[in-house]
Structures are given as C-alpha cells and as structure tokens.
Amino acid sequence: MKSIFERVSIRQYTEQPVEQEKIIRILQAAMQAPSAGNQQPWEFYVVTNPSMIQELAESSPYAGCAANASVLIVPVYRTKNLVFPEYAQIDLSIAQEHMWLEANELGLGGVWLGIAPLQERMDAVKKIMNLPDDVEAFSIFALGYPAETRVQEKRFDETRIHYVK
Q: Is the preceding omega at residue 117 within 30 degrees of 0, hence cis?
C-alpha cells in the first residue's frame, strides 16, 4: 500500500536500462488486475527500440517526455470475443494502475500517457506500431530509473466524503 501514497508521475529518466526481470514483474502486476467477466482483454507491447520510442513520443501532444525513457509499455485491448467489450478500457485502466504501483515498488519511475479514448491518438499509436486490426491502443507507459525526485501531494479531502444512511 506504500506505493499508493508515494507514486508520482516521473517524466525524466537516467540512461540506466530497466532490467528484464523488473519489466516482467510489472507486467505480472498488470495481469493480476480484475476485469469485467474475467475477460482479461489486455496485451502488452514492450518497446525498447529508440526510433519507435521517438515516434511514440510524438504521437500525442503530451507524450514528449516518453522520448527519454528507456522502455515504453503500450497496453492494448482486444476488440473481439470479449464478454463485456464496453468495459475493456476500464479493465485496462486497472491494469495500468497496477503497472504503475509495481514500477514504484521496484524503484522505477513512470508516467501514464493517455491515448484512449481519443480515437485519433489510438489510431496514431496503432499505425506507428503496426498493431493488428483486432486490438486498440490504450496508453503509453513511459518507464525508467528516475532522474528527478518528487513528493506526492496530499489529495485527501474530507469534504468530498458523503455518508448516506
């Protein structure tokens, strides 16, 4: 639970490569996410190719910080044979959060770069990566060893809690 209260968006990374074991651990955490009807619509593309990282960093006006990450993880969701297709993006949101918390736990930094639900961004990532027709790009998760230190802001606000009795 510590990572929930420590996790921050990290947009600057050192040049130290992320170890394969840590990438696998992050993806294991992602795949432990619950999903509607246990449909598990996710697939994950691990991008380490520098030219593709650069292209993906240019796929959205807010993805520029991905250019200096040593790894990008691009979660996608299948569009066929799903029990509840309308929940696929929610399922991927939970998996994405699991990835982020595990990255923090492993001493890594990351930032969730939103792609879905904006179709033009989803299409741009799909084209760059030459993804199959039956998947949709969900996000870009830039990942690496942090080159910046930030403290998470306190967000708890008791005035936003309403008890219904």
A: yes
Quote the domain boundaries for residue 19: 2-143
| Enclosing H/E stretch for 109 | strand 109-114
How far is Cα 151 from Cα 9, in angstroms, rounded to an integer?
10
The span from the CA of 75 to the CA of 160, in Å, is 32
Calpha distance 153→94 (Å, rounded): 21
Any domain includes 157: no
- The pTM of this model reads 0.94
CA distances from 121 to 94, 137, 145, 149 (A): 20, 8, 26, 29
pLDDT tens digits, 67-119: 999 999 999 999 999 999 999 999 999 999 999 999 999 999 999 999 999 99
> Do 99 and 91 form a contact (C-beta atoms < 8 A)?
no
How many domains, in total, are found in the chain? Answer: 1
Task: Determine the Cα–Cα distance for residues 120 and 137; give it in Å rounded to an integer.
Answer: 11
Position 152 in a domain: no
What's the CATH number where 123 sits? 3.40.109.10
